[in-house]
Write a structure and sequence with these properties.
Strand order of the largest sheet of chain A: 3-2-4-5-7-6-12
Largest sheet of chain B: 5 strands, parallel
Keywords (chain B): Oxidoreductase, Pyruvate, Thiamine pyrophosphate
Strand order of the largest sheet of chain B: 1-2-3-7-6
Oligomer: heterodimer
Largest sheet of chain A: 7 strands, mixed
Structural class of chain B: alpha/beta
Shape of chain A: globular
Number of helices of chain B: 13
Largest interface: A-B, 48 and 42 residues
CATH architecture of the largest domain in chain A: 3-Layer(aba) Sandwich
Protein name (chain B): Pyruvate dehydrogenase (Acetyl-transferring) E1 component subunit alpha
Distance between the termini of chain A: 62 Å
GO molecular function, one term (chain B): oxidoreductase activity
Number of strands of chain A: 14
Strand content of chain A: 15-25%
CATH superfamily of the largest domain in chain B: Thiamin diphosphate (ThDP)-binding fold, Pyr/PP domains
Order of helices and strands of chain A: HEHEHEHEHHEHEHEEEEHEEHEHEHH
Shape of chain B: globular
Number of domains of chain A: 2
Bound molecules: thiamine diphosphate
Cofactor (chain B): thiamine diphosphate
CATH class of the largest domain in chain A: Alpha Beta
Helix content of chain B: 40-55%
Structural class of chain A: alpha/beta
Radius of gyration of chain A: 20 Å
Pfam family, one (chain B): E1_dh
CATH topology of the largest domain in chain B: Rossmann fold
């Protein structure tokens, strides 16, 4: 067994700039090295290394049987993964793009999410379904969906999404190690985001389901995840000039949902805005706002607001900037948090 | 640039496209022109008498099991029962061709196959009784959960067989599906994956004439369902689904082939659903009595029984003995199904995730409180505890 830490073997492990894509690839590699039951399968994941190159080098290092180019059929890939998991393997499936995961929905909803439950706990399915999601990369139609609402509305699935390089590694490792199925949503516009990160001594996340406060503040809480975290961080910096000290919570996992961290923050600040790319109607923000209201009603100075994608099919790339929640929309929402009542 | 100026133009001759490879000969993959039969043919001479007797006992038991389960729906003991009456030869043969270590992937209609494999009938029927989705541990019995979303169990069989092969285990998966299910995308994807991966899988299509009310002619324009195999590069086999000896032989050959590492086979068994789709269905709306009568003359139990009687392998006492054994099974099943199942409402939350989430813990507590209040009410006849 070679863990990432063990391979470091005394060498100095200096943090260097690394991309989220590299951290994800490293997480796959380390999981495969540590556990021979981990198998990667998907479209173009072998020789090519995936269209986003996340699986680069895996087929070479572990062989085609461990990192497999499958026929082009998402239901077949996930369905086969179910059978592999039934036999004791730990499949990691790559869906090429968000909108191309839809053909696999029947397998996901009817079997992956339900197998543990429908067998009275006898046959859990430790499957990780990696889905590059969200917009902002100039993708043409069907390459930029934010489909998290469908997944989080399906009991039996965990829904995890990293927003930082370090989390990309730690959360993916934790997801693969989980005995439950995880839909692992990768914010594709952050694939090339960089941070100082040492692949030789990566900090592993021990369990999924905990949100984290990325910026402490006292005026209001921005609650977000995945691709919208950098937007919220930037908005929080810009808000300083307006006299607002914003707290930013990165959910990291939509299921399980960390009510504790979210409610504690909102109780401190008394105001909250939920930010995500996914359409607002029927989206995660509605659920989050309801949960905050149920738990923090007497601490709230204003209604919980949502900044979300419009309730439209994802726009053509030349128009996507009008759709995506940006810093200005976040600040506008913060401005509408009934500050007058304070004075 | 004209053709003459192209490099190598002097040698230009029309050829097949450069990437084209000669087509592999489809002939060995093609099904027989007629469903393969054993009973009443010369092939029966080679059949193992012991196997035929075993099949007969299982068919008689299976017929009785179907009748008993249907009766249980009338008594309100089963929520619904999709009967396999008329299809017992397929159900039984599918179970008998497998070794202990092999896996069976049944659909909702295939509880009999599971029972013939040795599963406790009460455990096989919990889905249809409505007390729990799967009444048994699939890994213990190597029987996947009964599957209702059509054809979705087929890719599971492929993945499992593939995984077993990667591990170097000698395990074959046999997956069952109806004729209607062959129109689903998952049927196509499963067969394609199986062939590409050379997975040790056998696909058994029971062509029982109908998908609820829709006849096969509205389902496909293929020459036969077995012919579909050719497009995937695997052999298709057509068999008389009411001839237990033939089904057993064809499935057995396919299992042996898979075991040898030669890949998957698609078997189409031509049979007939004698009962309505389920007890809740009215078959008179879409089929005529004369068709049902014609199939009665080709009944799987009688076909085999006749053969055995004629060849002196079985006598009337033997027939009686098989019937009595079936009666005992039915009586035991009836008795056990007449007891109310034990319901475990708190289990609703127990197996959603490996670790219960806070959210589910809170909801479980709320249900617990409701149940306690109900019990209080029942015990004291008051609203106490509300
Ligand atoms: C995906 C899906 N669509 C529809 C149904 C509803 N349904 C249940 S059984 C059935 C007919 C299936 O016919 P066939 O595959 O021929 O099998 P049979 O019932 O004859 O054994 C239908 C339409 C279903 N279970 N799953």
């Amino acid at each position: 067994m070679t863990t990432a830490a063990a391979t470091a073997g005394g060498r100095t492990t200096k943090a260097k700039p690394a991309t989220m894509a590299q951290a994800l690839g490293r997480a796959l590699r380390d999981s495969m090295a540590e556990d021979s039951t981990v198998h990667v399968l998907g479209e173009d994941v072998g020789t090519l290394g995936g269209v986003f190159r996340i699986t680069d080098g895996l087929a070479k290092e572990f062989g085609d049987d461990r990192c497999t180019d499958t026929p082009l059929a998402e239901a077949g890939i996930l369905g086969a993964a179910v059978g592999m998991a039934m036999y004791g393997l730990r499949p990691v499936v790559e869906m090429q793009f968000d909108a191309f995961a839809y053909p696999a929905f029947e397998q996901l909803m009817s079997h992956v999410a339900k197998m543990r439950n429908r067998t009275g706990g006898a046959m859990p399915l430790p499957i990780t379904v990696r889905v590059p999601y969200g917009g902002g990369i100039g993708g043409v139609e069907h390459h930029s969906d934010s489909s998290e609402a469908y997944y989080m509305a399906t009991p039996g699935l965990h829904v995890v999404t990293p927003a930082t390089v370090e989390d990309a590694y730690g959360l993916l490792r934790a997801s693969i190690a989980s005995d439950d199925p995880v839909v692992f949503l990768e914010p594709k516009r952050l694939y090339w985001s960089k941070a100082d990160w040492s692949p030789e001594a990566p900090a592993a996340v021990e369990s999924i389901g905990r949100a984290v406060v990325r910026r402490s503040g006292r005026s209001a809480t921005l609650i977000t995840y995945g691709p919208s975290l950098p937007v919220c961080m930037e908005a929080a910096e810009a808000a300083v000039a307006e006299g607002w000290d914003l707290e930013v919570v990165d959910l990291r996992s939509l299921v399980p949902f960390d009510d504790e961290t979210v409610a504690a923050s909102v109780r401190r600040t008394g105001r909250a805005v939920v930010v995500h790319e996914s359409p607002g109607f029927g989206g995660p923000g509605g659920e989050i706002a309801a949960r905050i209201t149920e738990r923090c009603f007497h601490h709230l100075e204003a209604p919980v607001l949502r900044v979300a994608g419009f309730d439209i099919p994802y726009p053509p790339p030349m128009l996507e900037r009008h759709h995506l929640p940006g810093v200005d929309r976040v600040l506008d929402a913060v401005a509408r948090l009934q500050w007058e009542a304070d004075s | 640039m004209t053709v003459q100026e192209l490099p190598g133009a002097a040698a230009y001759r029309p050829t097949p496209p450069p990437a084209w490879k000669p087509i592999t000969d489809p002939a060995p993959l093609l099904p027989d022109p007629e469903p393969y039969r054993v009973l009443g043919t010369d092939a029966v001479a080679d059949a193992d008498p012991e196997l035929l007797l075993r099949l007969h006992a299982e068919l008689v038991r299976g017929r009785r099991y179907n009748a008993q389960a249907t009766a249980l729906t009338k008594q309100g003991r089963l929520a619904v029962y999709p009967s396999s009456t008329g299809q017992e030869a397929c159900e039984v043969a599918a179970a008998l061709v497998l070794e202990e270590r092999d896996w069976l992937f049944p659909s909702y209609r295939d509880t009999l196959a599971a029972v013939a494999r040795g599963l406790d009938p009460v455990e096989a029927l919990t889905l249809l009784r409505g007390d729990r989705h799967t009444g048994y541990d699939p890994r213990e019995h190597r029987i996947a959960p009964l599957c209702t979303p059509l054809a979705t169990q087929l890719p599971h069989a492929v993945g499992l067989a593939h995984a077993a092969r990667l591990k170097g285990d000698d395990v074959v998966a046999l997956a069952m599906v109806g004729d209607g299910g062959t129109s689903e995308g998952d049927f196509h994807e499963a067969l394609n994956f199986a062939a590409v991966w050379k997975a040790p899988v056998v696909f058994l299509v029971q062509n029982n004439g109908f998908a609820i009310s829709v006849p096969l002619a509205k389902q496909t324009a293929a020459p036969s369902l077995a012919h579909k195999a050719v497009g995937y590069g695997m052999p298709g086999r057509l068999v008389d689904g009411n001839d237990a000896a033939a089904v057993h032989q064809v499935l057995g050959d396919a299992v042996a082939r898979a075991r040898r590492g030669e890949g998957p086979t698609l078997v189409e068994a031509v049979t007939y659903r004698m009962d309505a789709h389920t007890n809740a269905d009215d078959a008179t709306r879409y089929r005529v009595d004369s068709e049902v009568e014609a199939w009665k003359a080709h009944d799987p139990v009688r076909l085999l029984e006749r053969e055995l009687l004629e060849r002196g392998l079985l006598d009337e006492t033997g027939v009686e003995r098989a019937k009595e054994a079936a009666e005992r099974m039915a009586a035991a099943l009836r008795d056990r199904m007449n007891a109310d199942p034990e319901l475990a409402p708190m289990d609703l939350f127990a197996h959603v995730y490996a670790e219960q989430t806070d959210q589910l813990r809170a909801q479980a507590a709320a249900l617990r409180a409701e149940l306690d209040a109900e019990q209080d009410h029942d015990e004291h006849g008051t609203e106490a505890g509300r």
